[in-house]
Amino acid sequence: MRKHLLSIDDLTRDDIERILGRAQSFAEISGRTIKKVPTLRGRTVINLFYEASTRTSSSFELAAKRLSADLVNVKSAGSAVDKGESLKDTVQTLSAYDPTAIVIRSPHVGAARLVARWTAASVINAGDGKHEHPTQALLDLYTLRRRAGALEGLRIWIVGDVLHSRVARSNILAFTRMGCDVTVCGPPTLIPRGVEELGCHVAYSLDGIEKADVIYALRMQNERMTGAFVPSLREYAARFQIDGRRLGAGQLLMHPGPVNRGVELAAEVIDSPQSLIVAQVESGVVVRMAVLYELLAGGGDPGDEMSSLPPALVRPESVA
Amino acid sequence: MSSAQLDRAPAPAADLLVRGARLFDPRTGLDGEADLLVRGGEIAEIGDGLERPDGCEVVEAAGLCALPAFVDPHVHLRTPGREDEEDIESGTRAAAAGGFGAILAMPNTDPVVDSASIVRSLRQRAREQARVPVGFMAAITVGQKGEGLTEMADLADAGAPGFTDDGLPVVSAGVLRQALRYQRLSGGVIALHEEDPALSAGGVMHEGPVSALLGMSGIPSISESTMIARDAAIARYEGGRIHVQHLSARESVAAVEQAKAEGVQITAEASPHHLCLTDEEVRRTLDTGYKMNPPLRSEDDRQALIDGLRSGIVDCVATDHAPHSREEKEQPFETAPMGVTGLETAFAALHTELVLAGVLPLRLVVERMTAGGEPFGIPAPRLERGAAANLCLVDLSAAWQVGDAGYESRSANCAFDGRTLTGRVRMTVAGGAVAYRERSFAIQGVA
Questions:
Q1: Residue B439, Cα to own-chain centre: how many angstroms?
Q2: Which residue has the higher pLDDT, B156 or A76?
Q3: Which residue in A106, A130, A193 is closest to B332 by CB distance?
Q4: Three-class secondary structure of residue B339 per DSSP
Q5: Which residues of B are the active-site residues?
Q6: In this model, does residue A308 exceed pLDDT 50?
Q7: CA A127 to CA B264: how far, in whole Å?
Q8: At B440, is the pLDDT very low, low, confident or very high (cuts 50, 70, 90)?
Q9: Most buried residue, A148, A242, B45, B272, by CB count within 10 Å?
Q10: Which candidate from A87, A109, A130 shows the least CB-CB separation from B286?
Q11: Is residue A88 within 8 angstroms of chain B, CB to CB?
């Protein structure tokens, strides 16, 4: 197995299949009363978060704890980072504790890759600037496969602020790698120039979205309004909001959260049976357990500590 | 304008008999094995079997190629203000190690070179420290703020060979127009960093598929080319002379070509990194050693620059040697400063990537690397009898790993760091004095 998880681009289809299969095994643990196995006992995981995060940070924390790892949470606010310590110095300081893994969230592209240069620990990219968020993409694949069955051939529309979205980038790579047909859609000012080179189609209106199997809405960030990216949230919502009229009966809806209700999604679709938004959050823990296991436990030798687990299920559950 | 405005530290005039080198000078048409005698800092004789005069050092140079020394019109010496990154001594030492016989330093220092007294003080320091002749460009606008003109006439009198707000564009067309009008009084080419800040706002790399993949804000090619077109139009209107710095994009080459066709007095330079590298390096490594402004662009842009160099639309090569401290560069790509060093690798990079790859002939690369002073009135060095000795001895077949033995520059942020390049400068004679000898290069016959 690889030492780090820095980018979806680094993963083969087989790697992804293995992680999804492993996550399926861990889902069984999450169903138990005592949701804990001793797999990573004695190993240290450091969560180094330079940006605010609820879902990613807490699910990595839960994942590490369920695998019995020792966990240290470092946030930029209130730490030496706050006092101007450089990323390199922070990482070298933390590395002195001999961590097995460092999970890093940073506002800067490539931060995880830099950290991997400066530490002997395994490094997991929990979001680097607008670049990538690979575990989000993995949990999205996992969620979607549980619900839709096979991923191959699925038509997926990613709608919204693609320009500023690391989720969009990782998901374009992940979905296309698994054989999905991906279209990105949004105002032209929020679609990066050259994005079609990643293997997706580009649309500037929702015309044709009825043919999609999955609509993946992205968070519209209010701060983008000041940069003249779109004239107003009202016009954006009028043209790109997914509401009850636009979400067809057979279509699935996803969103990485947090949702701006009434902007990118209308309230009625968020809570509809077609929405996978809550399932995505649930998947976060088991997928991140699988990633930690793959990177830290050697991948191939679960030993007696894992013997109570079912074998990795590569086969998805039936379509709901 | 003359090379008299370049300064260097006192050094004994060279007395050398370079024996058995391949003498190669595209301007004189020289190409063949011969001896070259330097006496009192001048090329005294070229021929076969030259006798060694008394007191003359013999350089056994069989297997080496003697080229006219290169001239770099675009170097950041970081003096005054950031001598931790580079100073006049270290920067000119790096230049000499790269085979350069003269360089021009940019004025975007701290303080900015915008007064005659600063030019004079820098020239004085160069007369104490510089290993190769160096000239100090002055700013176009006071403090490089893009507003009031500097005292261009006084600056020219103090020895500034030209004017530039390099690092920043002259955003106001009106200010540039006034500078070009004033040029009739002051002389001195106006060199331009071409960038429309509104188009490149927030950008850290070339805008294209790679920036889309990496999620980094892009600097579009048109940020450069639209400003070139604007400034060429102003120069044509005012009859002024402009020099476009560090060309990076196909559209920019086209804009310069069109301006030249229309009779604008315009020259242009391109850097070895833009001629040899693309934004794929950023994709591959995310290494801040590939972060510069203008950014590394696409393969198509690179090919356009090579074509421009070949056709002469791009007049010369300039390194834009921009030293930065290790701490500053050891940051995430988006927050690291822009700029890379290049004096020590310029020839080797172009020789490896363009000459040995069969893209351009050696003749053309040498011609463009020696032409950098011409827009500023500094003639290109020549290997001919009676000329001042400005030459370098190069082993064209020597492969070396960049950075392996450190750098002469005080900074190590070289875009070619770690690469194996072929072509190594062994010795440089600049302004009639020996400026550099490679440590491993033994002088075999000393009188």
A1: 24
A2: B156
A3: A106
A4: coil
A5: 320
A6: no
A7: 50
A8: low
A9: B272
A10: A109
A11: yes
